[in-house]
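Q: Could you fold this chain for me?
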Amino acid sequence: MSVYTVVEEHQLVAFLEDYDVGTLESFTGISAGIENTNYFVNTTKHGQLEQFVLTIFEHHTFEELPYFLNIMAFMAEHNIPTAHPMPTHSNGYLKELCGKPAALVERLVGNTVEDPSIEQCGVMGGQLARFHIAGQHYEGTRENDRDLNWMQNTYAEIKSHLADDERQMIESEFVFQAQTDWAELPKGVIHADLFCDNAMFNGDALTGIIDLYYACNSTLLYDLAVMVNDWCRVHADNPAQIEFDQKRIDAMLSAYQTQRSLTEQEQIAWPAALRLAALRFFLSRLKDKHIPREGEITQIKDPEVFKRVLQLHQ
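A: Sure. Below is the predicted structure, expressed as structure tokens.
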């Protein structure tokens, strides 16, 4: 992520007055993620340290955000490990800070993982299925704003920046994806961005799923493919050396299906889902590389990683 909006201490002190979280002790910008500005915020209340994450939303509107924040609260209240947003005294979970929407969320214990174990992949498979099952009862709806139409529009925007082999790969993938009838597959609330850096672990115990700001109502199988593409690949400094770990894939899919069995149509569409999930992040990383946004702390993730993932699936 980048810190796009710089917050001054007096601004944060005034912001926190609308929460029952005590007195500000410290805050620091977080240099992980891509889309929003995030800070770690520490307060003291009755002599006890309280820890939170402050998110300032750089793209979403005040009208869009209740969907995400209410999902976070809904999942946490339905025993899905998720960071619960903090309520304000005045207006739900959302406030304005520096002229932008902002929310304060409890900071979870544990750490993200860079090289997940087979056990952790199994845990995530089971928890994603539980997330999907619980989401069937969530009443809010939101379209996927990173769907195939978005991919095609993004490609048109960046096409002139791309090498010939990249254009050929992407255009052939659009032809392939047109052959899958996504409308026939089961849908519901999906996370849509459940990478390794969006889950917190304490050992092999999941302490929380974070960053639900791409959540939407879309194809459940696609959500599973997004997760497999990140959690089950063997990371390498050289993207050309990336491979998939079949044991991790088997653990994740097996654990998922102990909670929710894949339909026959989903099993047929699984290769296409893996390719679509790879294409989505290949395109978004290409856009960040060629049309970057400015931020105080900037992290642009390597598109070559998902170029390799897409090649492997193709």
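A (continued): The longest strand covers residues 37-45.
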